Amino acid sequence: MISPTFMIELPAALHWIEGCPEGREWVRQLPDRARACSDKWELGLQAPYKNSFVSIVYPATRRDGSRAVLKLQYPHHESDNEHEALRRWDGNGAVRLLDYDSAHHALLLERGEPGVPLSTVDADKAVDVFVSLLPRLWIPAAEPFTSLADESAAWITHVPAEWERAGRPFETRLLDLALESLDRLRGTQGGQVLLHQDLHADNVLRAVREPWLVIDPKPLVGEREFSLAPIVRSNELGHSRADVVRRLDRLATNLRLDRERARLWALGQTVAWGCEGLHASRHIETARWLSEA
Question: What is the fold of 118-291?
Answer without folding.
Answer: Aminoglycoside 3'-phosphotransferase; Chain: A, domain 2 (3.90.1200)
